[in-house]
Amino acid sequence: MTNSTSTNHHGISVQVRGLKRDFGTQSVLKGIDLDVKPGEIFVLMGPSGSGKSVLLRHIIGLEKPDAGEILINGESIENDNVADKYRMAMVFQSGALLNSLTVGENVGLYLREHRLKSPEEIARIVAEKLEVVGLKDAEKKMPSELSGGMKKRVAIARALVIEPQLILYDEPTSELDPLSSIVIGEEILKLNERIGVTSLVVSHDRDLAFGIGHRIAVINEGQIAVMGTPDEVKRSDHPIVRNFIHADFKRAQ
Amino acid sequence: MFQNIGEMVLLFWRTLRALPQVWRQREKVFEQFFEIGNASLLMVAVLSFFIGGVLALQTGPTMVERGLTNFVSGLVGISMARELAPIMMAILIAGRIGSAMAAEIGSMRVYQEIDALRTMNINPVNYLVLPRLIAITFALPMLVTFAILVGWLGGAVVAKATPAIDIPIQSFFESMKIMIDLRDVANGVFKSWCFAWIIGIVSCHQVLVTRGGPRGIGRSVTKAVVNSIVLIVMFDYVLTRLLLE
Known about the structure:
Helix content of chain A: 25-40%
Distance between the termini of chain B: 31 Å
Helix content of chain B: over 70%
Radius of gyration of chain B: 20 Å
Number of domains of chain B: 1
Structural class of chain A: alpha/beta
Oligomer: heterodimer
CATH architecture of the largest domain in chain A: 3-Layer(aba) Sandwich
Strand order of the largest sheet of chain A: 6-7-8-3-9-10
Number of domains of chain A: 2
Number of helices of chain B: 9
Strand content of chain A: 15-25%
Largest sheet of chain B: none
Shape of chain A: globular
């Protein structure tokens, strides 16, 4: 979230310390502690309503916690200069594209609003980023003409324009067919390898989590139940985690 | 209610602070200005023509009967300029443009588009509220000026076409010229300027308060229109009082 486009592509670290948040009488986050290393793909898994997306919204600064703190590269997110110092982007579950703008205008919005490049340069960057996500012919389309998967890829292209050091993905594969989910997963991996961006992915898609995550945390009822590498999480004997990981549909005999 | 008023005052203050950004947002200002003007011009013309006409029709025959023929045009002229054009156009714009603003911004909030702007370090006040407020600040006074002129014309046409009044159009405007000065028109335009801010702020305030899905958006639109109209009528009294002193 900065007004400059530097060529520094190193990811940044995220530390969450004792994060608590209540909505009315409901306690959604009950003291979350986690560390995400620079350049890491960290996946937050958990059942629906466990507080994953709320945690993500706190990390990007859309929500204020009741207690605890979030540090970006060791600096509190409350500091005014953090948002300008580090480039962060979020890919929303719905894509959150501006419906009144075309795909191209959505992707170039950040550069245009912050006057970072000339219109010609913006057009070139937009075309380049749309090609990266496989949507080079969609530039003139309106968001309403796109499928769910295409919207998510446009949202990723919009995030890429920021040249982020930290990308937060909120349920990037929800509502997608398995093939589109694989494309999105590959995009996340490619980005991480190419620019070393730190990626924080919220998902309850087990294939995605174990396929791309360097580390995984499983959240249940506002607390972290298990955290570790994919293998460590798979071996966990925590009952909630085992249920969640091994849940399967069984046809009645 | 007090929380809403506080939030609206805060939004107004934040929009004023964003004024130096207005040149950067000029394309959006023109876009909104065109939207408000283009969407409303015909309706403003029809409405004000008939308001002027009805005013002449209601008062003309009685005044002519009592030998006050020269005052018919003055009554139509002053009523249109000082009161009817600003308040009727403000109510029309609150219903037509205020509701559209509230619906658009409310749905942007519900569908996380405003969150997306914030994550890109784009201030929603600068991006959404400022262009709309500036556009309506210029558009409404211009529409009201146009409405005053059309209203006068409506009054003149009806005064000529109604046998019980039968004032020639030229005489209508000549006696109006004697009774009306520029201050009457300026009063109406000044009022419309204040009403424009009320419509803009009340409608854009939905950025802060819209919750839920389509039902929430519907509630916000209704509240934006109703609150705008109530505030317009209240402020109309206050402004009239101040301007008369």
